[in-house]
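sry for the spam today, last one i promise. C-alpha cells for design, 304 residues
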C-alpha cells in the first residue's frame, strides 16, 4: 500500500482489520481512541495563498510534538490571493512546486484554490503522479474572502462586509464552492486514483462556519464576536489560524490534534481567555469537523 495511506496502518497492530474501506477499495485514515504509535513522517510541499501559508511550520512542530519522526517541509510556494492555476503558470525558473514534483521526492502535495474547479489542481496531480505514482494530494476548501461564496470572488467581496451573521446565514455561506470542490475531488479521484482516493479535502470553510455559529449562539468562551476571527475582511486572526492548522494536521496524518501543545500563534496573542481550555476546544472542533467530513478521508474507529 502506498506510503500516504500506510501511515495510518501504523496506528495499531490491528488497524488493518478494523479500518473501513472506501468504495474504490482505498482504506481511509483512522485514529483509534487513545494515543498509539505515531505514523511515519511525510515529505510535504505546499502551494498556497495567504489563508494557508501560515500553517506549514506549525504543522511540523505539531508532528514533532506528536512523536512523528522525519516529517519534512520540502517547500512552500506562496502567492497572495492566488488560484492554484497561477502557481502552475509561474515561469519554469521560478516554479519551485514543479521542480519539487519532478524530483519524485514529495509524498504529499497541498494546495489552496480560491474557487473550484481550478485547472491547476489537476495539472499538479498529473505531474506529481508521473514522477511518484504513490503520492497523495490535499486541497483546502477556503472560506470566502470578504465573507462571500468563493464562486463569486472577488465580485462584491468587500462591499458592506458583515462578519456578525446569523446561524441561518452562516449555514449556506460557502455552500456552492464546497460543492464544486467536492465535484472536482470526485473527478480527479476517478480519473487518476485507480480505484483509490488520492485527493483529500480540508474542511476549512466548514470549520469556520461551525465556530462562527457557536459564537453567534454565545457558545464559545473567549470569543464574543465573529469578527474576532479576522484581522481584516479576509485574513484569520490567531484562533482561526490555529483551528485551520489543526485541520491540516488531522487530514495530513489522520491523527487527532487533541492534547498537542498550544501553538505559537495563540501564545503570541497573549490573551488570558485564550488559554489551554480554549486551545483544546479548537483542537476538538478541528477533529470533529475532519472526522465527520467524508472528503477528508479521515475517520475515527469505534470505541472498543
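last one done:
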Amino acid at each position: 500500500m502506498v506510503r500516504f495511506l500506510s501511515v495510518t496502518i501504523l496506528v495499531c497492530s490491528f488497524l488493518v482489520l478494523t479500518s473501513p474501506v472506501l468504495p474504490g477499495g482505498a482504506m481511509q485514515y483512522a485514529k483509534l481512541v487513545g494515543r498509539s504509535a505515531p505514523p511515519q513522517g511525510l515529505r510535504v510541499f505546499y502551494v498556497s495563498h495567504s489563508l494557508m501559508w501560515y500553517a506549514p511550520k506549525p504543522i511540523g512542530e505539531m508532528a514533532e510534538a506528536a512523536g512523528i519522526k522525519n516529517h519534512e517541509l520540502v517547500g512552500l510556494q506562496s502567492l497572495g490571493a492566488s488560484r492554484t492555476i497561477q502557481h502552475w503558470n509561474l515561469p519554469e525558473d521560478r516554479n519551485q512546486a514543479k521542480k519539487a514534483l519532478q524530483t519524485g521526492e514529495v509524498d504529499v502535495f497541498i494546495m489552496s484554490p480560491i474557487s473550484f474547479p481550478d485547472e491547476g489542481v489537476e495539472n499538479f496531480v498529473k505531474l506529481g503522479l508521473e514522477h511518484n505514482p504513490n503520492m497523495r494530494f490535499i486541497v483546502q476548501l477556503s472560506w470566502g474572502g470578504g465573507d462571500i461564496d468563493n464562486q463569486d470572488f472577488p465580485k462584491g467581496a468587500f462591499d458592506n462586509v458583515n462578519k456578525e451573521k446569523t446561524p441561518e446565514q452562516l449555514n449556506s455561506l460557502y455552500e456552492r464552492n464546497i460543492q464544486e470542490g467536492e465535484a472536482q475531488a470526485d473527478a480527479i479521484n476517478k480519473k487518476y486514483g485507480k480505484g483509490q482516493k488520492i485527493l483529500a479535502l480540508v474542511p476549512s470553510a466548514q470549520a469556520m462556519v461551525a465556530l462562527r455559529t457557536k459564537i453567534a449562539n454565545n457558545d464559545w468562551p473567549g470569543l464574543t464576536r465573529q469578527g474576532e476571527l479576522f484581522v481584516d475582511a479576509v485574513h484569520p486572526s490567531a484562533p482561526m489560524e490555529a483551528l485551520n492548522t489543526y485541520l491540516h494536521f488531522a487530514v495530513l496524518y489522520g491523527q487527532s490534534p487533541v492534547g498537542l501543545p498550544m501553538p505559537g500563534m495563540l501564545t503570541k496573542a497573549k490573551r488570558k481567555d485564550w488559554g489551554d481550555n480554549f486551545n483544546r476546544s479548537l483542537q476538538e472542533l478541528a477533529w470533529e469537523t475532519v472526522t465527520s467530513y467524508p472528503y477528508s478521508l479521515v475517520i475515527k474507529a469505534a470505541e472498543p
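The two ends are 26 Å apart (CA to CA). ok im logging off now
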